[in-house]
Amino acid sequence: MKTNRGKSIIILILFVLLFVSICVIISLSSGRNYSIIVEPSELFEIVNCKRSDILIVDLRDEEEYIRGHIDISINLPLDDEGEKLLEYLARKKYDNRDIYLLCQSGYRSSSAFNILIENGYHKVHNIRFGYEEYYQCYKDDYVPAVGICNCKD
């Protein structure tokens, strides 16, 4: 009797492990690509690659952006619960691009990250640190762009 019970427990454990493995495989293959960029060096590398398949969204207000920004970024201030951001991304059909979100300190980018995830965007990358920290890390190797965003169409 003990061996039947022992076999049943082993079979149950194997089924649970199989179920968990299937769930992990499904979640990994779901096409979602969320991330949080931790180090400024990761963003520096992305910026210097000049890839055309990414979008860097600077969520700071226009005055902050004008004083200095990453040259390949666009300025979409997060001042309206993300409505302008969602409208712009939908209009430009950026739902399949890697979208990097940057602000001054990380708060607005976290908010925008959540808004985009809730609205079905999958390739979203929250840059946890802010523009100022990025600038301070690379001020010797980086010249900020200045002026208004040419993305206001």
Task: Describe the protein in words.
The protein has 153 residues and is α/β, with parallel strands linked by helices. Helix content is 47%, strand content 13%. It is built from six helices and five strands, in the order H-E-H-E-H-E-H-E-H-E-H. A five-stranded parallel sheet has the order 1-5-4-2-3. Strand 2, helix 3 and strand 3 form a beta-alpha-beta unit. Helix 2 packs across helix 6. The protein starts with a helix and ends in a 15-residue tail after the last helix. About 5% of the residues have low confidence.
Mean pLDDT rating: 82
What series of H and E elements makes up the topology?
HEHEHEHEHEH
Oligomer: single chain
Query: From the alpha-carbon coordinates, what is the Rg to the nearest angstrom?
Result: 21 Å
Distance between the termini: 76 Å
Q: Count of DSSP helices?
A: 6
The overall strand count is 5
Record the strand order, biggest sheet: 1-5-4-2-3
> Which regions contain 5 or more consecutive residues with pLDDT less than 50?
23-29
Structural class: alpha/beta
Approximately what portion of the residues adopt beta-strand conformation? Answer: 5-15%
List keywords for this structure.
6 helices, alpha/beta, 153 residues, five-stranded parallel β-sheet
Could you write a compact summary of the structure shown?
Helix content is 47%, strand content 13%. It is α/β, with parallel strands linked by helices. The model is unreliable at 23-29 (pLDDT under 50).
